[in-house]
Structures are given as structure tokens and as C-alpha cells.
Amino acid sequence: MIMPNMNRFSPVLAIALLAAAALAAPAESARQYDSGYQTMARLADDLYRALPKEKRGTLLARPVLLDNIKAPYLQPGAQAKDGTNLHAVFVSPALFEVLNYISHARAVESVDDGFFAKAVNSLACDNGDKGLPPLYQPTHEKSWAFNTMNWQLGYFNQMAAGLMAIEMAHHHLGHYSKYASQLGDPKKPAPLYSVLSQKEWREAVLGGSRHALDCGLAPEGLIVLYDAISKMPQRPSWAVHLMPPTEEVSILRLELKRVEASFFDARTAAREEFRWSW
């Protein structure tokens, strides 16, 4: 903020202007997301520890960030280290732009009805390998309010944990090993979801969601993400890294809700067993 010549103003007005400047600076800097790669990496550590030892195998706990890929990217793969091919999950910076944008759009919807649909249409524009196009931005006065951003972070955590757990499931369920030879060039492989069967995808989604619940992350964020992709008038090329081209969210939403309900039913039943009988 450019401050006027204070010699022309009274001390009271000068103090008021300085206070306004102090409040304006945090407001601008606050318009950034606190969630990103490091958030997913921390969640991945928890997911890795929650896996049974036999399912970890040669799995890398944290996702591998590919800075050279401009488009949103999420893919299981192999990484050579010390003569061993380790199972890894590869991500790009733009993936976190998508997750932050969709989670924020869903949070803004609660204060600005109709924003989510506009955001989805904006995100559907395909910019190829160049990254994301300019996205429709929220303008409501509460778009960046504390409560809104609290919901945004919650949805992001659920999306990031759910996606990471699903990619881990593709490894320990044997999906990646089964299709690795069909993915082509290891440096630029075809998306796994272009060859994976519907049954295998749902197996990984439901199993990964149950795994994320073990770490306290509900599947609601995944439902929001898949709902956004399903509502796109046309899916951009990068969407196949998050969801198979022909899949929809309608039936999956019910299946994920069942996974969550059965998880908490099992927890409640376990607590009931420890109640005293007298």
C-alpha cells in the first residue's frame, strides 16, 4: 500500500491508516493455500505406517515429485535405487493445484451457491501438457474466511490421503505389476487408468478409502473430487490420472459411504466388547 504524506494528516488519522495497512497485508498474503506436496507427504507417512508389514514390501512411503511435468499427474510406478526397483507414487505440482482448487470450490459453495459448477466448468478446459488454464476465481467476501478455508483444508486432506492410499493399493494389490508392460515408455508411461479394469479400480478405491479411514481421513473428499470430474462437460486429458474415463460418481458415492459406515460400525462393536457386564 502506498502511504500518503503523513505531515498533512492528524496523528489520529495517521495511526488509523497504519492500522489499515497492517490489516491489508495479511489479507493479501492469506490468499494462498497452506496445503500442497508436503501435506500429502506427511499423510503418506501415516498411511505407510498403517499398512501391514507384508503390504509395504518395497514401497516408498512418500510420493515422488516430478517438477518437469506441467499438467496434473498421479501415477504408480517403479524407481530404481541401489539395484532395486522400488514401488513409488509419482505426482506433479499441478496435481496439488487441482486438489486445492476443487476443495476450495466445494468450500466456497457453502457461502456462494453455484460457484462449484462454475469452477468445474473452468477446470474442464484442456491446456494439454502446458498445465492448467486460468481458472475462475471466487469473489464472495467469505471465500477466504477462516471457516471456508478450514473446510478447504479438510477436503484437501481427505483427497490427498485417499488418492495416495489408492495408489498404494494399486501396488500391493498387484495392479501396477500386472499392467506395467502395457504402459509403454517408463519415462512417460500411459496412464494406468487407461488399461485398468473397472473391477480393479473400484477394488483399489474402496480398499484405499478403508486404509485412509485407519488414519482418520474420511472418503468425503474423494467423493467431492470424483463428483467434480463427473460433472465436467468434457474431461481434460489429465483427468484420466485421477479417474478412469468411463467411470461416474453416482454408484461409487454409495459404496464409499458404505465403507465409512462399516468402518465406524466395526469400531463401535469393538468398544462394546470391552464394556463390563455388571
Secondary structure topology:
Elements: H1 11-29, H2 37-50, H3 53-56, E1 64-65, E2 74-81, E3 84-91, H4 93-109, H5 115-123, H6 146-172, H7 175-179, H8 198-214, H9 220-231, H10 250-273
Parallel strand pairs: 1-3
Antiparallel strand pairs: 2-3
Structure description:
It is a single chain. The protein has a three-stranded mixed sheet. It has helices at 11-29, 37-50, 53-56, 93-109, 115-123, 146-172, 175-179, 198-214, 220-231, 250-273, and strands at residues 64-65, 74-81, 84-91. The chain has one domain. With 278 residues, the chain is mainly α. The termini are far apart. Residues 1-30 have low confidence and may be disordered.
H/E element sequence = HHHEEEHHHHHHH
Give the count of helical stretches.
Answer: 10
The count of domains is: 1
Largest beta sheet: what is the strand line-up? 1-3-2
| Helical fraction | 40-55%
Instruction: Tell me, briefly, the overall form.
Output: globular
Integer-rounded radius of gyration = 22 Å
Structure characteristics:
278 residues, 3-stranded mixed β-sheet, globular
How would you summarize what this structure contains?
This protein is mostly helical. It is built from ten helices and three strands.
